[in-house]
Design goal:
Layout (H helix, E strand, L loop, with lengths): L2 E4 L5 H10 L9 H4 L7 E2 L2 E4 L5 E5 L2 E7 L2 E8 L9 E2 L5 H17 L2 E7 L12 H8 L3 E12 L11 H12 L3 E3 L5 H15 L7 H10 L4 E7 L5 E9 L3 E9 L1 H6 L1 H14 L6 E6 L1 E2 L4 E2 L1 H8 L4 E11 L1
Parallel strand pairs: 6-8, 13-14
Antiparallel strand pairs: 1-3, 2-5, 3-4, 4-7, 5-6, 8-17, 9-14, 9-17, 10-11, 11-12, 12-13, 15-16
Length: 326
């Protein structure tokens, strides 16, 4: 039999130890990453223990009051501050225990006045062992899919079918190399951030999800997991860049942007052709992920953005969120 308890700051070492050993976790679930925005979310993370008091699973989560049918309801979200979520499982966690995780969570929510549970599933590319049991039990409990976002991913495995890469992409990359453009690895975030913020403000009237200072703190807290790569022209000016979130087997492009000069010369072609080729040579990485091309929970598809990613050889990965009324 399992039991659950709410996470407290005293559990940080226990939490992080399980994340490091889990079959379906990344550094985003470490408390030193999660807690950078603790002031924005009311944490309601859960720890699941076996009869010996040993943790077997975690649920990164927050609670929030939402408007519903003219009133307000208390909902649990897995976790609104993270790109993905769901139950974090130890390698020995069996399907019967995963069923019990749902039953315990639902009972906990009912006992504490919650009306609904929003379950943000971990995409399969982050599974170190197959971990889709949660989708089965969501279905069994009658959960409805409330969001389905489309990301674009390249399989880097040497035995995978080699995707078709647009010839113009490689031609652009070679042309820029001849002109003296260079990919700068492990560049300072500040060299890229002004390009990113300027583009987001001009195109969408918004700022990045993370401020430069927040990202610098996260990079310092998670060394090796957050890396910036840029492209400079022959005069040493930064014209494009990306911030990569690097997990055990996935290289994910969290932010991508280019200056007006970078857009005109197709600097991102040089950047991503170089990075994809380099990470393909590092056998520990299985996937290179460009991120989603959808908005409003998947209801709106940015077809031109998706096509840009597909021309590097990427194809679809889903980010799914389910709603379970309790």
């Amino acid at each position: 039999m399992l039991s659950l308890k709410r996470y407290t700051a005293a559990d940080q070492a226990l939490w992080d130890t399980l994340v490091a050993a889990a079959r379906n976790a990344t550094f985003l679930f470490l408390r030193r990453y999660m807690d950078y925005h603790s002031d924005r979310f009311s944490d309601h993370s859960l720890i699941f223990l076996n009869e010996r008091g040993t943790p077997v699973a975690l649920l990164p989560a927050n609670e929030a009051v939402v408007s519903a049918d003219g009133g307000e309801e208390l909902h649990l979200f897995s976790h609104q501050g993270l790109t993905y979520g769901g139950f974090i499982l130890t390698p020995r966690c069996r399907d019967a225990q995963i069923e019990e995780l749902f039953r315990l969570t639902i009972a906990h929510l009912r006992a504490n006045g919650f009306a609904a549970f929003h379950y943000k599933q971990l995409p399969h590319i982050y599974h170190l062992l197959p971990s889709c049991d949660d989708a089965y039990w969501l279905w069994r409990h009658g959960a409805a899919e409330e969001a389905c976002c489309l990301s674009s991913t390249i399989d880097l495995h040497p035995l995978a079918v080699r995707p078709h890469v647009s010839g113009s992409r490689r031609n652009n990359a070679n042309r820029l190399r001849r002109k003296g453009y260079t990919v700068c690895h492990n560049a300072p975030l500040s060299a890229f951030w002004h390009i990113l913020t300027g583009n987001l403000l001009a195109s969408h009237g918004v700022a990045p999800v993370h401020t430069l200072e927040e990202m610098q703190r996260l990079q310092a807290a998670c060394p090796g997991n957050i890396v910036c790569h840029t492209v400079t022209d022959a005069d040493g000016q930064t014209v494009a860049g990306t911030v990569l979130f690097i997990t055990q087997q996935v290289v994910h492009s969290q932010y991508i942007s280019a200056s007006p000069e970078g857009k005109e010369c197709a600097a991102l072609d040089l950047l991503f052709i170089t990075l994809i080729d380099e990470y393909r040579q590092q056998q520990q990485f299985r996937y290179f992920d460009f991120g989603i091309s959808t908005e409003q929970g998947g209801a709106v598809l940015n077809a031109s953005l998706l096509e840009q990613k597909e021309r590097f050889g990427a194809s679809g990965t889903l980010h799914r969120t389910f709603l379970l009324r309790v």
